[in-house]
Amino acid sequence: MTFPGIVATLVGIILIVTALYDVFQTLLRPSETGRLTHLIFRLSWAIVPSRRFPASAPLTILVVIGVWVVLITLGWALVYLPHMPHGFAYQSLEPAEFDPFAESVTMSLVALTTLGLGDVVPAQPVLRLVSPLEALMGFALLSASVSWFMQLYPALARRRAFGLQIESLRRSRTAEDLVTFSDERAASIVDRVTESLAVLTADLVQNSEIFYFADESRRLSAPQAMEYVLELRDVALASPRAAVRSAGRALAVIVDELADLLKAQYPHVRGESTDEVVTDVAVAHRRISR
């Protein structure tokens, strides 16, 4: 193999590994930062929200999947390129009529999508050994994409349920009336909010991309609901009753955990204190909610 062929193969392997590593991080270690997926979502968040386009996050998922496909396709194409056309057997086709790089890309797409057209097949033993791996990657990529959607949308449903829960408390003026409730009822209300917020925080750890989904309705917006959670926390902490203060402290701990997570996972989130972080996120989502 010539030196350019070696370089092409190495670059191809790097592209393949980059895509596979990003798929692994996104689905199995989603709390990691610095991934290609995070970069694409951050770019989308920086550009699209100003245009008030709530569908940007679902479309960004498709963009990420498309980037994975392109990286794997080009990576394998570069692996095939040094062996094109002498490393392949052509059926009823004249290799000289086709551009080697275009043929490599075509071969890669056929293998990735498991079409198996049969007009061009690997002939060299090494190529016959490794080309089925690309077909396996294509099947794994399809499964990973479906799995990603199945992970994200249940988490989004829980986030929206939290938004509705807090909105119902806000409309019923629960924070203002908390002092009039019995100790047991007041503490129970705060505890339920704490439990729901803990689930929301865990979902953000496991599925960090849900942050970028914007709800068109304020009633469903968990980021905006957090402003009322801060008010409820403050009222509970100021209560003269020990049970309510205890529930308020538990809620404050979870709110602090959420703020720390937001600052750690999303570099564009601003604010030093918990309240500043929560308010910054709420304001960002308010721009695209009605």
Work out the strand percent: under 5%
Overall geometric form: elongated
Largest sheet: 2 strands, antiparallel
Question: What Rg is obtained from the alpha carbons, in whole angstroms?
Answer: 26 Å
**Low-confidence runs (pLDDT<50, min 5 residues)?**
none
Strand runs, count? 2
The strand order across the widest sheet is: 1-2
Structural class: mainly alpha
Distance between the termini: 61 Å
Average pLDDT across residues?
88
Estimate nothing, just give the exact number of structural domains.
Answer: 2
Query: Helix count, per DSSP?
Result: 10
Helix content: over 70%
What is the string of helix and strand elements?
HHHEHEHHHHHH
What does this protein look like?
Helices cover 70% and strands 2% of the residues. 33% of the residues are buried. Helix 2 packs across helix 3, helix 3 packs across helix 4 and helix 9 packs across helix 10. It has 290 residues and is mainly alpha-helical. Strands 1-2 form a two-stranded antiparallel ribbon. The protein folds into two domains: 143 residues, no CATH class; 133 residues, no CATH class. The N and C termini lie far apart (61 Å).
